[in-house]
Amino acid sequence: MFGVGSLAFGYHLAGFTPLVRGLISFGTLWLIAVWQRWRWFAYIGIACNFLFAALGLWLLNFPPGWMFAGAIGGLLAFDLTRFWERVRFVSSEAERGGLQRRHLVRISLLAIIGIAAASLAMLVKKQFTSEWAWLLAIVAVFGSMQFAVWIRGRGK
After folding, report:
1. Can you list the residues of the chain whose pLDDT is less than 50?
2. Which of 57, 65, 73, 113 could crosslink 2 through cysteines, CB 3.0-4.6 Å?
3. Residue 121 burial (CB count, 10 A)
């Protein structure tokens, strides 16, 4: 929902309100699809997510941060859906834990690099807003909390 929410906010800032409602509805449908285990919907979700991010970024010249965040969020949702498919068939609990840790480190690095690139693009285009600063602060707080939980869990 982070990805679709970021896209919706970017489109809202540009005044595309009817499309915002459609994006939020699509995000809700994607959440329902995950809940219902419609694994095929993840492919539709990532394709639409990238399409709207690319449309907003290259053709409509929307704020790049929100489009990058939308693409990254969609990629993370897709990746975690596919990863859950793989990890549920691993029999060893130790192997599952190691696989999950390595995967979370990789996607965390991807998210950090993506958000940093989006922030740099926002600075270069002079579109760095207080909303973007709030998003970065919220992501930093949740990321720090997750990192602390991860470090604490490794000590056991």
Report:
1. none
2. 73
3. 17
For residue 79, count CB atoms less than 10 angstroms from its CB and return exposed for 0-12, middle for 13-18, buried for 19 or more: middle
Looking at residue 156, its pLDDT comes to 55
Total structural domains within the chain: 1
Give the model's pLDDT for residue 155. Answer: 56
Write out the residue range of the structural domain in which residue 140 sits: 2-154
The structure tokens listed for 130 are 């207080």
Q: Which residue has the tokens 């595309």?
A: 16
- How far apart are the C-alpha atoms of 67 and 148, rounded to whole Å? 29
Rg (Cα) of the chain, in Å, rounded?
17
Query: 57: Cβ–Cβ under 8 A, 6 or more apart, which residues?
Result: 64, 67, 68
pLDDT of residue 24: 92
